[in-house]
């Protein structure tokens, strides 16, 4: 958090708000002004390495969402299968890779960001709201980790995320509403799979890593 805030302070120290808004890569533009072309190239390489680390995290977590859904009976059962040699959710990872290629070729980064940010923040908000609900409805559950500053931090996060989503809908109504509509479409499928999972329970092996 400190590094992120320091980087943003550096952007505003060297560049104006209009320069930041018009820059395709703000970090490279900053390095170009302060260090020169060599600095811009070095910073771009560092950013690429950081992106590789972020992609690794997305691969590990993204594929395990449909994997967990399938194991709970809330998605296609094939996504819950484990690779016999690598002991990983191989089919879910392969499906995620194919879907990623399709989405990348379908539009630009800006377009994908506009469609994904609103729905992503919706689920961030639901996750934090779940903390509040579960602490009230299940106060006796063991909690090895406690949220710092609770409940003020939780309510502050929910207020900021609500403001972010409302602002996105007002400034970018078409992609924001389409993203929310896609999310809402998933609700009937959830109840359909949930009804099926209550009638047919399947036992699947646990992944080892």
Relevant terms:
209 residues, mainly alpha, globular
Please count the helical segments: 9
- Estimated helix fraction: over 70%
What structural class results from the helix and strand content?
A: mainly alpha
| pLDDT < 50 runs, ≥5 residues | none
H-E order? HHHHHHHHH
Global morphology: globular
E-strand count = 0
Strand content: under 5%
- Name the average pLDDT: 85
Let me know the largest β-sheet. none
The count of domains is 3
What integer value in Å does the Rg equal? 21 Å
Tell me the distance between the termini.
Answer: 29 Å
Walk me through this protein's architecture.
- The mean pLDDT is 85.
- Helix 3 (26-34) packs antiparallel against helix 4 (37-62) and helix 7 crosses helix 9.
- It is globular, with a radius of gyration of 21 Å.
- It has nine helices and no strands.
- The protein is mostly helical and 209 residues long.
- It folds into three domains: 1-62, no CATH class; 68-106, no CATH class; 109-209, no CATH class.
- The protein starts with a helix and ends in a 10-residue tail after the last helix.
